[in-house]
């Protein structure tokens, strides 16, 4: 027992050290990503674009795809994910913000209400790490050391919590993926996968080299595009799968535990946030009735999520997940560490 506890603590110490090193290298990851994305766009427009048919159609389409790729990445690293102490956000009157569909009834106060949705207030608990009151689906990020609304994961492009003075001035440096930037994260991955696929298909025949970009740079970008298409394609597919099931990445792992707990009692686990694949996707992208128009999927515009993170749409008749009893909900990883060390 003592040996297993020592091994557990050693692994957790190494894990936290890795988090700090990854966080400290965050700005370099951001700069590296910007260079690779920029170089890839330059290679495509210099080498591939002039040879595409129907330039009046393919030209604007390629510009739109590149614009979505750049802007959604910019939004991911600059838009705050949403913290529990933040007030509800209102859309801004700007060319970068989409206009919402006309509401059929009711007035919004941070949450969208409609006859089709059953939206209930989230249960609130107190975070054992920072002392903040946090609604359900909120998790404490051990790197940011803050509670993030609808926490999905922490992006590697991050500083550790000791650099908050810099992070507050440059919010894109210290980033989790949460309520307010998760949509942009998924959109960025989708456009990155599509861009890499396009470069893989259209860039293969270009062997002659009367171009401005060095040939070695194009070859390296082409190889990187193949790798990124496969790797990011898998990751994007997984995220879309979790979204279609009404889950975040961390909730997907939690729900597997809940299913085992429910099965041990001959019960079945039901995710109360799962409203069906189509409805889940509509709510995540905030499109459809009482949401934003479909063009927000092809134009890189800012939009607000359907909720302020303190109320959630649920299955009718559900106020919590079925198969999970009060007190069985999983806490954040650091809370589990404390329990293990106190055992």
Automatic annotation (TrEMBL):
The keyword Transmembrane helix applies. It is found in: Membrane. Residues 317-343 are annotated as: Disordered. The DHHC domain is required for palmitoyltransferase activity. It is a multi-pass membrane protein. PROSITE patterns: DHHC. This is Palmitoyltransferase. The chain crosses the membrane at residues 21-48, 54-75, 185-204, 216-241. It comes from Mycena maculata. Residues 126-161, 173-253 form the Palmitoyltransferase DHHC domain.
């Amino acid at each position: 027992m003592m040996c297993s506890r020592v091994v557990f603590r050693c692994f957790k110490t190494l894990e936290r050290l890795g988090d700090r090193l990854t966080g400290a290298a965050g700005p370099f990851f951001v700069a590296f990503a910007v260079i690779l994305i920029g170089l890839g766009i330059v290679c495509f427009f210099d080498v591939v674009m002039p040879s595409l048919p129907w330039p009046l159609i393919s030209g604007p389409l390629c510009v739109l795809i590149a614009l979505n790729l750049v802007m959604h990445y910019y939004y991911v690293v600059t838009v705050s994910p949403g913290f529990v102490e933040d007030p509800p956000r209102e859309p801004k009157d700007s060319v970068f913000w989409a206009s919402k569909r006309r509401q059929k009834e009711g007035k919004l106060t941070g949450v969208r209400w409609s006859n089709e949705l059953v939206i209930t207030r989230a249960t609130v608990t107190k975070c054992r790490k920072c002392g903040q009151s946090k609604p359900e689906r909120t998790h404490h990020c051990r790197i940011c050391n803050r509670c993030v609304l609808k926490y999905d994961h922490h992006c590697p492009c991050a500083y550790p919590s000791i650099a908050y003075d810099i992070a507050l001035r440059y919010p894109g440096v210290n980033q989790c993926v949460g309520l307010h930037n998760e949509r942009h994260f998924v959109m960025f991955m989708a456009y990155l996968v599509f861009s890499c696929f396009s470069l893989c298909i259209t860039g293969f025949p270009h062997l002659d080299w009367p171009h401005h970009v060095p040939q070695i740079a194009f070859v390296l970008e082409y190889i990187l595009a193949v790798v990124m298409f496969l790797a990011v394609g898998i990751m994007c597919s997984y995220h879309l799968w979790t979204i279609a099931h009404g889950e975040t990445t961390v909730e997907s792992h939690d729900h597997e535990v809940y299913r085992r707990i429910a099965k041990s009692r001959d019960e079945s686990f039901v995710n109360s946030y799962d409203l069906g694949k189509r409805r889940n996707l509509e709510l995540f992208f905030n499109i459809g009735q009482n949401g934003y128009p479909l063009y927000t999927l092809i134009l890189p515009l800012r939009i607000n999520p359907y909720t302020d993170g303190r109320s959630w749409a649920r299955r009718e008749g559900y106020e919590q997940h079925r198969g999970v009893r009060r007190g069985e909900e999983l806490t954040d990883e650091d809370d589990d560490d404390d329990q293990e060390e106190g055992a």
